[in-house]
Design a protein that fits this description.
With 166 residues, the protein is an all-alpha fold. The protein has a domain at 97-152: Orthogonal Bundle (DNA polymerase, domain 1), CATH 1.10.150.320. The protein has six helices and two strands. Strands 1-2 form a two-stranded parallel ribbon. The longest helix is centred in the N-terminal third of the chain and has 21 residues, at 13-33. The mean pLDDT is 77.
């Protein structure tokens, strides 16, 4: 078997490192597909046993089903303040998305954008402390103040407050 020579020039140290990484990846790829004694022994033993594919697949499926059935769910299923994220007349200032404020004329986009980009808020009154609120915007906030609630910020919802991909 002919092995080509690889010439690496060391003009730039970072370029040299990159070439070494590429060389290592190529060598490991070739090694993965090269036949070796262990793979030949395994192939011959499988051929000798004449394993029934259907039995093997049934056993594998049963094992994977048992593992999946035993796995606990990692998600929060019952978020107690889910109604405050847009499903009721109350809105959580710390967790609700900017689009929830579309239901309140005069809030979206200016006032809503300021609410979600500031915070977290300890109380509903903290919303009036936002820098740059105009008199008109404060009047709009006052109009809907009874619809606001404050709960602890939840990482599951805070991440999508400004842009939820819609």
């Amino acid at each position: 078997m002919h092995i080509p020579k690889l010439i690496i020039r060391v003009n730039n140290p970072s370029n040299f490192k990159m070439k070494l990484v590429i060389l290592a990846v190529l060598a490991s790829t070739v090694a993965a597909f090269a036949p070796n004694a262990a793979s030949q022994r395994m192939a011959s033993s499988l051929a000798a046993e004449n394993t029934d594919r259907r039995a093997f697949l049934n056993a594998a499926l049963a094992t994977s089903a048992a593992v999946v059935a035993a796995s606990p769910a990692g998600a929060i299923r019952d978020y107690e303040a889910i109604g405050y994220l847009g499903g009721s007349d109350k809105v959580d200032l710390n967790n609700a998305n900017v689009r929830v404020y579309l239901k309140m004329p005069g809030m979206y986009p200016a006032v809503a954008g300021k609410i979600v980009s500031h915070g977290p808020y300890a109380s509903v009154g903290d919303v009036y402390k936002i820098d740059g609120l105009t008199g008109g915007e404060k009047e709009v906030l006052k109009k809907y103040e009874s619809r606001f609630v404050v709960t602890a910020p939840s990482p599951d919802y805070v991440i999508d407050r400004i842009n939820n991909g819609l």
